[in-house]
Amino acid sequence: MSSKTAIVIGAGLGGMASAIRLRRAGWKVVVLEKNMRVGGKLDCHAAGGFLWDIGPTMLTLTPVLTELFEHAGQRLEDYLELVPVDPICRSFFPDGKVLNTWANAHLFKIEIARQEQDQGQALEGFLRYARRLHDLGGEAWLYHPPRTPLDFLRWNFLKRIGGLPAVLGRKSLAAVVARRFKSPHVRRIFERYAAWVGSSPFWTPSLFNLIAYIEIQGGGWYLRGGLFRLAEALEKCAREMGVEFVFDAEVSSVLLDRSGRFGAARARGVVVKNYIEMKADAVVANADPLHVWNRLLQGFPRAPAVFRRLQKRPFSLAPFILLWGVKHRYPQLAHHNVFFSPDSRAEFDDIFLRHHPSKTPTIYVGISARTDPTQAPPGQDNYVVLVNTPPIEPDHHWDKERASYRDVILRRLEGLGLDALGDHLVYEKIITPADFSARTHAFRGAIHGHAFHSRRDVLARPRARCPGIRGLYLVGGGARPGGGIPLVLLSAQRAVGAVLEDAD
Ligand SMILES: Cc1cc2nc3c(=O)[nH]c(=O)nc-3n(C[C@H](O)[C@H](O)[C@H](O)COP(=O)(O)OP(=O)(O)OC[C@H]3O[C@@H](n4cnc5c(N)ncnc54)[C@H](O)[C@@H]3O)c2cc1C
Questions:
Q1: Which atom of ligand 1 is nearest the CA belonging to 272?
Q2: Same domain for 473 and 435?
Q3: How much is the pLDDT for 159?
Q4: In this structure, are 348 and 414 located in the same domain?
Q5: Atom of ligand 1 minimally distant from the CA of 16
Q6: Could you say which of 169, 188, 214 is where a domain stops?
Q7: C-beta neighbour count of 236 within 10 angstroms
Q8: What is the DSSP secondary structure assignment for residue 272, as one 8-state letter?
Q9: CB-CB contact of 132 with 166 (8 Å)
Q10: Shared domain check, 423 and 337
Q11: How many domains does the chain have?
Q12: Is 237 helix (H, G, I), strand (E, B) or coil?
């Protein structure tokens, strides 16, 4: 057992995964969370016999989660029941066409070939290309980022070198998809993977086409009882190992001392609610990196370069969420549904160039009750409706627009075949990007911190070691490799790896 202590700021998934890993290494760990429960962006809401997952609705790349439990000396099955969801998604297009995305690639090919002439072969080719991206680009970006030239050997780099031009390609995700598919419908399905990382397909580098491989090859999963079970499971596992959680414990600053060589700053602990000092050997911040810089390091004289760069990079999409209890079951809907906007380019230009929410947005409707009847009263459905909007601008007042934007979404869904949906609503809760930001401290309400709008943005994301401040580490969707459950869990591997290396 080590006598070292760590403080984790925030009980999001990255924070809890870090706590588990640090505890496993023998550290004494305290997690300080400003809210009254764990989960952060992975939250839930219950009312009138309905249950809604507010944040994530789909789990991918499940081996990353399995590894975390194994690392903790536990079995995932003892905490969670993973349920495959297939079709992974049902897409509704403005011209009335409906297409399923299947995790079973063979089934997907049959569906595409049947509905979209000649596109079956194109799908096969595209998935082979996405796999190549994953095998090389995924290694470098996700699993084993290079630290020494030896790492290139470990990836079997020379054998895979043929895939390098595709990985480093300058084209956007959408441009490559457009080159590979003639069908506008199939293009929209694959373009949407850019939104998984909070970005526009027209600027996201083509490397991110590897997400299609991750989802279709590995499948999309649900957790029995709701995705929030994941947050509960990590909390339970961490507590069983001896991690301490303190709620309603907002960290107001990181304690710094400057006794290092040449006056270098070092994190010595944190201050909670402006007056309680807590000392630790390492501080792992699960809060948004820009919250860390703008609020928790206010006494620090000059922003390290990474934060200065970050302020200038584009932010990722922000969520406008509706939770609806619906007393009617529309037969055309599946567990995951996407109603596409008529013009994807115009939609993303509205969001990222004109900085206002689209009037004809793409709408995601998740209904976990279709897989898990415990989520809604019998014969009824629990809708999580998600629309991507711009990161909050100073002159944008969501409190004034919440009702009118909700009406835009409702009218669109009614126009797209969910007849008289408004008459069937028995419960409603509206969560704007501003509400989301207030609850999670997501800077400007951006779901994943920064967008990936260039290859530079992949490298602009902060690494685990907070530059310029020893003993402070960043974990979570705002740090490398990025947002989304599996990526955040991978960021915990990196953060704790850095803590342990520095402590040696
Ligand atoms: C609407 C939506 C849909 C999504 N869908 C999916 C999906 O389908 N699949 C998927 O894989 N991912 C999805 N995601 C992304 C996923 O939810 C996130 O990437 C992940 O949950 C983020 O975890 P994190 O570790 O970055 O921590 P966060 O969730 O950001 O948690 C940070 C925690 O720190 C706390 N905190 C912040 N500041 C302080 C402070 N000063 N003091 C104390 N505590 C503090 C916060 O309260 C919070 O609990 C979605 C996210 C959203 C919002």
A1: 42
A2: no
A3: 63
A4: yes
A5: 25
A6: 214
A7: 15
A8: E
A9: yes
A10: yes
A11: 3
A12: helix
Q: Within a domain: residue 323?
A: yes
- Domain boundary residue, one of 408, 440, 472: 440
Q: Is residue 471 part of a domain?
A: yes
Quick one: 424 and 321 in the same domain?
yes
Phi, psi torsion values for 172, nearest 5 degrees = -80, 165
Q: What per-residue confidence (pLDDT) applies to 328?
A: 97
Kindly state whether residue 145 falls inside one of the protein's structural domains.
yes
pLDDT of residue 292: 94
Q: Clarify whether residues 411 and 489 are in a common domain.
A: no
What DSSP state is assigned to residue 292?
I
Q: Which residues pair with 270 in a beta bridge?
A: 254, 278
Distance from the alpha carbon of residue 485 to the mean position of ligand 1, in angstroms? 9
118 and 151 belong to one structural domain: yes
Q: Report the predicted TM-score, pTM, of the whole model to 2 decimal places.
A: 0.96
Structural domain includes residue 72: no
Q: What is the residue range of 157's domain?
A: 107-196+207-214
Quote the CA–CA distance of 285 and 251 in Å, as a whole number. Answer: 10
pLDDT in tens, the chain (504 residues): 678 999 999 999 999 999 999 999 999 999 999 999 999 999 999 999 999 999 999 999 999 999 999 999 999 999 999 999 999 999 999 999 999 999 988 889 999 988 888 788 999 999 999 998 998 888 888 888 877 777 766 666 656 666 667 777 789 999 999 999 999 999 999 999 999 999 999 999 999 999 999 999 999 999 999 999 999 999 999 999 999 999 999 999 999 988 766 667 899 999 999 999 999 999 999 999 999 999 999 878 777 777 888 888 899 999 999 999 999 999 999 999 999 999 999 999 999 999 999 999 999 999 999 999 999 999 999 999 999 999 999 888 999 999 999 999 999 999 999 999 999 999 999 999 999 999 999 999 999 999 999 888 888 899 999 988 999 999 999 999 999 999 999 999 999 999 999 998
Output the ligand 1 site: residues, CB below 6 A.
Answer: 9-15, 32-35, 40-42, 55-58, 250-251, 286-287, 291, 319, 321, 386, 440-441, 447-448, 476-477, 483-485, 488
- Residue 42 — φ and ψ, nearest 5°? -95, 95
Tell me what percent of the chain is helix, strand and coil, each rounded to the nearest 5.
Answer: 45, 20, 35
Q: Report which residue type is found at 326.
A: V
Q: How far, in Å, is the centroid of ligand 1 from the Cα of 500? A: 24
Task: Assess whether 434 and 478 both reside in one domain.
Answer: no
| Residue from 211, 441, 450, 472 to probe ligand 1 pocket by mutation (most atoms less than 8 Å from CB) | 441
Rounded to the nearest angstrom, the distance between the alpha carbon of 306 and the centre of ligand 1 is 21
- Quote the ligand 1 centre to 120 CA distance (angstroms): 37
CA-to-CA separations, 261 to 99, 266, 356, 465, 472, in angstroms, rounded: 61, 10, 48, 18, 16
User: Which residue is closest in CA terms to ligand 1's atom 14?
Assistant: 56
For residues 295 and 385, state if they share a domain: no
Identify any residues that bridge with 85 across adjacent strands, giving them in sequence order: 220
Q: Is 385 left (phi over 0), alpha (psi -120 to 50) or beta?
A: beta
> CB of 382 within 8 A of CB of 375?
yes
